[in-house]
Amino acid sequence: MKFKGKEYAEVKDRVIAFLDEYPQGSINTELLSGYPIVDTATGETCNEYTIKATITPNPLQEPDIYFTGHAAERDNTGFVNKTSAVENCETSAVGRALAFAGYGGDLAIASATEVANAKAKQKVIQPTIKSLEEIDIMASQCEKAKLITTNQHVSFKKKRGEGYYDTKARVQTAKEAFQVLLDNDKTEEIKNVKENA
């Protein structure tokens, strides 16, 4: 979706992208406050709600890495808020948390400070050069041992070159898959040695 000429990912699309990359990830929301106030702009009495959203990409293995977003809405503004202020507030909070986690367009986060914070947090989930080199070596070992085909190795290298392995989670998944193949090959090798002894 475009907004003022810039790409803007809707919250529903950010949620899909996040869960596609982190199927075990969690999205939690918490109503921090909800109380009547006098709207200074209109003088009306309305209810204001504040919600906090927390996005945790890998809650089981890396619970300390998470992203939060806050939102506040009043039920006297706009058509949607008159009937669904809490729901709209929750969606906004989730959208902001996902934006901090790297899911969203240029307009997903409001200020330059927030953008800088998001970039700093993204560094936490980016893979190291060493881990990328490790999966390259493992892929070569698997092809050499005929555990994967040449076409599979070429496909891996293509994805690698296009930047698919841009998070620790994706690198770890590839590493585990290659390791299973290599471990199974060693087990088979030991079995053959024993049978021929």
Description:
The structure is a single chain. This protein is 53% helix and 19% strand. The protein is built from 6 helices and 5 strands; from the N terminus they run ββαβββααααα. The strands form 2 sheets. Strands 3-4-5 form a 3-stranded antiparallel β-sheet, covered by helices on one side. The chain is of the alpha+beta class and 197 residues long. It is elongated and about 90 Å long. It has 2 domains: 2-125, Enolase-like, domain 1, CATH 3.30.390; 129-196, no CATH class. The N and C termini lie far apart (66 Å).
Give the helices and strands, then pairings.
Blueprint: E1 2-3, E2 6-7, H1 11-21, E3 26-38, E4 45-56, E5 67-74, H2 78-100, H3 112-125, H4 129-144, H5 150-161, H6 168-196
Antiparallel strand pairs: 1-2, 3-4, 4-5
Helix pairs in contact: 1-2, 4-5, 4-6
The structure class reads alpha+beta
- Level-1 CATH class name of the largest domain: Alpha Beta
- Tell me the β content: 15-25%
Q: What is the CATH topology assignment of the largest domain? A: Enolase-like, domain 1
Instruction: Please give the alpha-carbon distance between the first and last residues.
Output: 66 Å
Secondary structure tally: strands: 5
- Please outline the major beta sheet: 3 strands, antiparallel
Computed Rg: 23 Å
Number of helices: 6
Q: What CATH architecture label of the largest domain applies?
A: 2-Layer Sandwich
Report helical residue fraction: 40-55%
What is the H-and-E element order?
Answer: EEHEEEHHHHH
